[in-house]
Specification:
The chain is α+β, with helices and mostly antiparallel strands. The chain starts with a helix and ends in a 7-residue tail after the last strand. It is elongated and about 85 Å long. The relative contact order is 0.11. A 3-stranded mixed β-sheet has the order 2-1-11. A two-stranded antiparallel ribbon has the order 3-4. It has a two-stranded antiparallel ribbon with strand order 5-8. Helix 4 packs across helix 5, helix 8 runs antiparallel to helix 9 and helix 9 packs antiparallel against helix 10. Among the domains are: 106 residues, no CATH class; 91 residues, no CATH class. Strand 3 and strand 4 form a beta hairpin.
């Protein structure tokens, strides 16, 4: 991929960019209009060169030399080889440096391209995601990580599509996921993986609040959102009210804003979502994926208006939405092998 970035454009394009790159112009953090096809959106991606060991640099430099030789043999430089193979022309040194730079930034910014493999058409409950290759998408690479991501991504051909899988409010970070998800992996393991592979300490909400994994979520409590409002219209309190499932109270006073929240109304909504979830699953089983997605999305909105995650029903619905969306991307039907 480090080589492909160069071969897509040709030598002249990068030579024309040389002086601009030396000035260190970052199109993301500047007032210039962002163009995803501008090479600077690739060049300025983080490579963590300051955190690398001498051995790491040595190995990547060896790889860069190999790729450089491939470009040279393929006629990328449009020139006769220098009289001495030990003597490189300035343009060759520049390209070699770009290759080494690409190898560093690809480690943290490349994405896998995948497809969904189904045993039967429109039967996605048993489908599995299969790795096809890798790609660099500079705009997608700007999304930071959360162990509770706000988007999922899928591919149509080599085009990546990102879609929201939960409500994202104005001012909130739109986060994707780099691998570890809080519902499946303990916090210590997630943080160790992210520190080792991506060189950062995860400070997402599930890590900061130590959210339980899916199987450890307490079914004996409900996490109601406080309904305290300003002038009876705009919600002013962000507190979460923990209520035992066996409570006999229907009005709970918030310890923060001192207003009462009617949980009876919330419980009625939750009962309605049970029937809706059954209907959505039925639509999914019938292969009516778009109708199922609409129903799951409606359910998620209702749940989110009443309860605050983490709780099982919310994340089950989120997972169903993710499955629906993945089915809109690359997919193939692979018949299950019959074993004797």
């Amino acid at each position: 991929m480090a080589l492909r970035i160069l071969s897509q454009r040709g030598l002249k394009y990068f030579l024309d960019m040389r002086d601009i790159l030396k000035k260190g112009c970052d199109v993301v953090n500047s007032s210039q209009k962002y163009h995803p096809t501008d090479y600077r959106t690739v060049y300025n991606l983080v490579g963590h060169s300051g955190m690398r060991t001498a051995l790491d640099f040595l190995l990547r430099t060896d790889t860069a030399i190999l790729l450089f030789r491939c470009l040279k043999v393929a006629g990328f430089f449009n020139m006769h080889p220098s009289e001495s193979e030990q003597e490189l022309m300035p343009d060759e040194v520049f390209v070699g440096a770009l290759l080494l730079h690409h190898l560093q930034l690809l480690q943290f910014n490349a994405h896998e391209i995948s497809e969904l493999q189904l045993e039967k058409p429109n039967k996605i409950d048993s489908a599995r995601s299969v790795f096809l290759g890798g790609g660099l998408f500079p705009t997608l690479a700007l999304f930071n990580h959360s162990c509770d991501p706000g988007i999922t991504r899928y591919f149509q051909g080599t085009t990546v599509i990102a879609r929201a899988i939960k409500n994202i409010h104005c001012g909130e970070m739109i986060a994707e996921n780099y691998g570890p998800i809080f519902t499946q992996t303990p916090r210590a393991e997630r943080q160790a993986t992210l520190k080792s592979q991506y060189k950062f300490d995860c400070l997402c909400v599930p890590c900061n609040e130590d959210w339980p994994m899916f199987n450890n979520m307490n079914q004996g409590i409900m996490r109601f959102r406080c309904t305290g409002t300003e002038d009876g219209k705009i919600r002013k309190c962000n507190n979460v009210i923990i209520v035992p499932t066996d409570t006999s109270d229907f009005m709970i006073r918030c310890a923060v804003c001192k207003e009462n929240t009617n949980i009876l109304r919330g419980l009625k909504v939750l009962q309605d979502t049970d029937a809706m979830f059954h209907k959505a699953t039925q639509l999914m089983d019938e292969g009516k994926v778009r109708q199922a997605l609409d129903k799951y999305t409606e359910i998620l909105g209702l749940l989110d208006s009443i309860l605050a995650p983490p709780f099982k029903d919310f994340h089950l619905c989120q997972q169903a939405i993710r499955h629906c969306m993945l089915s809109f991307g690359n997919k193939s039907v692979v018949s299950k092998k019959v074993t004797k």
